[in-house]
Amino acid sequence: MNKCKEKLMHGIFLVCACISAAAVAMICFFLFANGLPAIREIGTADFIFGQTWKPLENKFGIFPMIIGSIYVTAGAIIIGVPTGIFCAVFMAKFCPEKIYRIMKPAVELMAGIPSIVYGYFGLMAIVPAMQNIFGGSGKGMLTASVLLGIMILPTVIGVSESAIRAVSDSYYEGSLALGATSERSMFFVVLPAAKNGIMAGIILGIGRAIGETMAVVMVCGNQSILPDKLTSGIRTLTANIVLEMGYAADLHRDALIATAGVLFVFILIINTLFSILKNRSSDQ
Amino acid sequence: MEIAKKSVVLIKPYSSVKKPDIPKCRPMSVILRILMTASMIISAGVLVALIGCILINGIPALIKYSPSVFSWEYTSENVSMTPAIINTLIITAISLIIAVPVGISAAIYLTEYAKKGSRLVKLIRIAAETLSGIPSIVYGLFGYLFFVLTLGMGYSMISGAVTLAIMILPLIIRTTEEALLSVPDSYREGSFGLGAGRLRTIFHVVLPSAVPGITAGVILAAGRIVGESAALIFTAGTFAAVPDSLTDSARTLSVHMYALLSEGLYTEQAFASAVFLLLVVIGINALSKYAAKKLTDR
């Protein structure tokens, strides 16, 4: 009886553990089963490198969206990563206890704020500021980059801080003993030693930024054209899906699902990079 | 004599050299320090600005439209958020009911049963990591394709809740695993030594001592559900009232806010719901912290 129960529960636990693997398989299957035929119908080159997205004229080129996603993500990295790393070093080493006790929960809170609230903040605070500085609508690539830069801050700070803390103190002390200042020791000895962990944090941030939907859709302007300047409106892959899925039908709908498929491939690549780096940093 | 004198002369200048005070006069150190301080001020400033922006705009709106914005039924006049709040609670509850047992069981398998380095465990870990990286809009589309269309559940609370359950699964697995791993092996050995079976050990010894950590993870997951919007629009839909059954469409507070914003008519009411959303998230974060602290206190 008892043995039976043990065996049964073992089985149940095993099944539950396999559910996550099954979920990944199902997501892959459903995205590609619906997306690939659409890509085939549109033509792979026309779909990925086509420059016009006009569903009414049966033109489904997502190249502007791919470029848009890459641009805003790059912008977010340029803005968010240096800020995040400097902040992480400060929090890991130079921060007085009192400030740390406020900053740590503040960063955690930032990570927990819903993206729709960030989008709202962008719409109400960053967009008007951009209007004042650059004129125009205020919505566009730069605004989206700034907002995404803010949104990836907690990820970058959190992961970098723990990577820096994981570096053995002897590195820092050795460098001090050789006559370096404590800042120099942190930035030129400890930081390079923590580089794999920090890179993992950055890649996690990239994943966040490229997959972000609700915040971006509010501030990026949503024009599906190739941007020619920093302030011009763009549309990301995610924005494309959320804007048009509500009323799309037939090939248009399948093209949107294929867009999600492309996004999924991006995420898979980013995830693979992330796990490679993470394994490398735990090997050290 | 001569030599001794010389050595005295030699020693003297060294001992009279002042201790070099390094930190203050090196330009690079100063610059780095300024950059660090600036980054920290920016990060903290952004958070303060965000909370300030929402409270300053939202609280007057909340007062202005009270109590009609909290009235029981949604109409296009009062744009009430009460139904959305109730829907949020229901969807959160269902998602947790589905995801928590599955997630905890999966974590138990990974920590207590699985052999280290087995291929299956590796596969499950990679899968969980992949799941946690998938953007919510992709979950939304998957939920739409699988639950709404293929299983014929339609735009409904249950489709939304199941989609979200899959979304929070990796978070629950990871936090539970961490909590289980932090239970010292001596507990397990003690239990086995007293003759308890594996199952009894898990349910009566290991799990109870991991409860605070698991709770912290579950609360975090609840926070993600409350804040989620992209995954719900195409699964639970955007119907603005409390539905009669779980198979009907309903919007949560985040979706409510998105709907108000994209309609562009009720910006002030959207502010009011943003205040509410923010307060809930702050509360959830504090709760999760409290639970996690209980774990480390013991």
Structural overview:
The complex is a heterodimer of chains A (284) and B (298). Chain A has helices at residues 2-42, 44-49, 63-94, 97-112, 115-134, 141-166, 169-177, 182-193, 195-211, 214-219, 237-244, 250-283; strands at 53-54, 59-60. Chain A has 284 residues and is mostly helical. In chain A, strands 1-2 form a two-stranded antiparallel ribbon. In chain A, strand 1 and strand 2 (59-60) form a beta hairpin. In chain A, helix 4 (97-112) crosses helix 6 and helix 7 (169-177) packs across helix 8. The longest helix of chain A is centred in the N-terminal third of the chain and has 41 residues, at 2-42. The termini of chain A are far apart. The mean pLDDT of chain A is 89. With 298 residues, chain B is mainly alpha-helical. Chain B has helices at 2-16, 22-25, 27-65, 82-113, 119-133, 136-150, 157-181, 185-193, 198-227, 230-233, 253-263, 267-297. The longest helix of chain B is centred in the first third of the chain and has 39 residues, at 27-65.
Give the integer mean of the pLDDT values of chain B. 84
Work out the radius of gyration of chain B: 28 Å
Rg measurement of chain A, Å: 23 Å
CATH topological fold name of the largest domain in chain A: MetI-like fold
**Care to count the β-strands of chain A?**
2
Give the end-to-end Cα distance of chain B, rounded to a whole number of Å.
70 Å
CATH superfamily of the largest domain in chain A: MetI-like
| Count of β-strands of chain B | 0
Structural class of chain A: mainly alpha
Quickly name the level 1 CATH class of the largest domain in chain B. Mainly Alpha
The biggest sheet of chain A amounts to: 2 strands, antiparallel
Summed over residues and divided by their number, the pLDDT of chain A gives a mean of 89
Oligomer: heterodimer
What proportion of the residues of chain B is helical, as a percent range? over 70%
Number of helices of chain B: 12
Shape of chain A: globular
Measured as a percent range, the helix fraction of chain A is: over 70%
% residues in beta strands of chain A: under 5%
Question: Can you identify the CATH superfamily of the largest domain in chain B?
Answer: MetI-like
Separation of the first and last Cα atoms of chain A: 47 Å
**Strands of the largest sheet of chain A, in order across it?**
1-2
